[in-house]
Amino acid sequence: MTGVPALTLFEKIWDAHLVRRLDDGRDLIFVDRHVLQETTSAVAFENLKRAGRGVRRPELTLATQDHIVSTAPGRDEATNPGGRELLALMRANAYRHRIRHFGVDDPRQGIVHVIAPELGLAQPGCVLACGDSHTSTVGGLGALGIGVGTSEVEHVLATQTLALSRPKPIRVRFQGRIPPGLVAKDLILRAIGALGVAGGRGSAVEYAGSAVEALPVEGRLTLCNMSIELGARLGFVAPDEKTFDYLRGREFAPRGPAFDAAMAAWRSLHSDPGAAFVRDVAIECDRLAPQVTWGTTPEDVAGVDDRIPDPASYGDAGRREAAAKALRYMELAPGVPLEGLPIDIAFIGSCTNGRLSDLQAAAAVVRGRKVAPRVRALVVPGSMAVKREAEALGLHEIFRDAGFEWRDAGCSMCVSINEDVAPPGSRCIATSNRNFENRQGPGSRTHLASPATVAAAALAGRIVDIRKEARA
Ligand SMILES: CC(C)[C@H](C(=O)O)[C@@H](O)C(=O)O
Ligand code: SF4
Questions:
Q1: Ligand 1 centre and the CA of 225: distance in Å?
Q2: Of 218, 251, 266, which closes a domain?
Q3: 222 lines ligand 2 (CB under 6 A)
Q4: Are residues 431 and 390 in the same domain?
Q5: Residue 2 lies in a domain
Q6: Is residue 359 situated within a structural domain?
Q7: Burial of 299 by CB count in 10 Å (0-12 exposed, 13-18 middle, 19+ buried)?
Q8: Aconitase/3-isopropylmalate dehydratase large subunit alpha/beta/alpha domain: which residues (predicted)?
Q9: How many structural domains is the chain composed of?
Q10: Can you say whether the dihedral through the CA atoms of 283, 127, 247, 454 is positive or negative?
Q11: Phi, psi dihedrals of residue 332, rounded to the nearest 5°
Q12: Do both 337 and 458 map to the same domain?
């Protein structure tokens, strides 16, 4: 024994950012990068102004507009009248504090969690903060992405640090091989179903195992995105050659010899053999079916070939009641197969599944076919860069020819605080990450699934098993 402690990846990164331990038990950690979106930054800037403080490190800060922006092709800040004020405020605040601002008029605009990796702002071993829960997404590159609230945004703006309770390291290992047609979204939905939406509470989740190693970087971003739906604070994957290849040449990534030096350091970013996790869970992937949610939390999930569960089958009284309430809201009956459920809307996009590989997976299903009559189907690229790359590959034509709307980048119908709203009573199958009551519009009903499953449902007008489609 050498006496050198075996550390988890989480401990390595966290400790490297520790400024000091505070008297209240929290850790003060340095933030390498801070990204802003319009809905959570306005009040933070206002408070900063009132306190007479400035932004400590504007050069480490980047702002974009994503939540409330219109996604109508060719939109500007005024296209969604409801967003006008907030968008103008974001722009003005960024200008005043000399913060880079990628607004709707900038080719680099997009959902904050899509552009942070895409621009190379998020890098292995860095701490990236954002006033948005799904900041964990960037964990797919081996970064610690920390989602914070408005008062913490203010704290980061003023000090470039965060005071946080130290999360507990846990590990989720996806073992075996991912069946054909299935993707990271199916894996993470399965994990949430197995562990529950509180399964990761207070923790930092490292995703590992053969199936994660096999995932492309964009799939790892999807996996880490939904750490929040596991109840975790953070989720990440140890960086590897795929990560380095992904980052090379990106706008904010190191260049030339600096990249090689960074890569040499990044290679040490993994959990040491024998490192202790508070919890270590294995999920078998070999026989996984495409996953679709049936209820109003992401843990209400099943294989597409399953039936809607009977609330009475749950041992726990709280769970029984919640499932019964969810079925009432979703207007679904126990025992009904998920496959075959008619849908009204198909939404492809969001920070979970709005990247190029997601659109490619959907387009592969859609090519040469038509959206079912009466179904509204929309594709909303996660960023304008994704939109341009997809267009260079001709994906927009595949979608448009089939009857999909091909929109500009933004959060869109994931959260429906712009004009993209699902009507009351409508049933929407979506590639996003949240299926709460009213999430996509008052009275709307959401089924979460992978891009291929959503695309196939748009064509069939009902939920289908993509494995059968492939054989047909
Ligand atoms: C608007 C924002 C605060 C919110 C979040 O942080 O999650 C949004 O992104 C969401 O997904 O509901
Ligand atoms: S796409 Fe959805 S989950 Fe992601 S940041 Fe936007 S609103 Fe939140």
A1: 12
A2: 266
A3: no
A4: yes
A5: no
A6: yes
A7: buried
A8: 11-461
A9: 2
A10: positive
A11: -130, 150
A12: yes
Query: Is residue 67 within 6 Å of ligand 1 at its C-beta?
Result: yes
- Which has the closest alpha carbon to 295: 389, 394, 196? 196
Q: In this structure, are residues 52 and 204 in contact, taking their beta carbons and an 8 Å threshold?
A: no
Q: Is 427 near ligand 2, meaning CB less than 6 Å away?
A: no
What CATH number has the domain bearing residue 406?
3.30.499.10
Q: Give 249's contacts (C-beta < 8 A, 6+ positions apart).
A: none
Q: Model ipTM?
A: 0.98
Would you place residue 2 in the very low, low, confident or very high pLDDT band (cuts 50, 70, 90)?
low
| Number of residues that make up the chain | 472
Q: Are residues 258 and 305 in the same domain?
A: no
Ligand nearest, relative to CA of residue 66:
2
Ligand 2: residue whose CA is nearest its atom 6: 411
**Residue that is written with structure tokens 């008062």 in the block:** 151
| pLDDT at residue 4, rounded to an integer | 83
DSSP letters for 244-275 = HHHHTT-TTS--HHHHHHHHHHHTT-SPPTT-
Q: Using a 6 Å cutoff on CB, does residue 152 contact ligand 1?
A: no
Please indicate, yes or no, if residue 164 is contained in any of the structural domains.
yes
Mean pLDDT of 371-400: 98
- Whether 311 and 219 map to the same domain: the answer is no
For residue 387, is it left (φ>0), alpha (ψ between -120 and 50) or beta? alpha
The rounded distance, in Å, linking the Cα atoms of 171 and 207 is 6
Q: Could you report the per-residue pLDDT of 251-301, keeping only the tens digit for each?
A: 999 999 999 999 999 999 999 999 999 999 999 999 999 999 999 999 999
Instruction: Note whether 386 and 436 are same-domain residues.
Output: yes
Q: Tell me how far apart the alpha carbons of residues 281 and 314 are, in angstroms, rounded to a whole number.
A: 22
Q: For residue 48, is it within any domain? A: yes
Which bound ligand lies closest to the C-alpha atom of 355?
Answer: 2
- 8-state DSSP, 281: E
Residue among 40, 67, 358 to mutate when testing ligand 2 (max atoms within 8 A of CB): 67
* Domain enclosing residue 355, as ranges: 291-471
Q: Ligand 1: distance of its center to the CA of 67 in Å? A: 8
Asked if 364 and 257 sit in the same domain, the reply is no
Cβ(386)–Cβ(412) below 8 Å: no
Look at residues 266, 282, 312 and tell me which one is the last residue of a structural domain.
266
CA 340 from centre of chain: 27
Residue nearest to atom 2 of ligand 2 (CA): 414
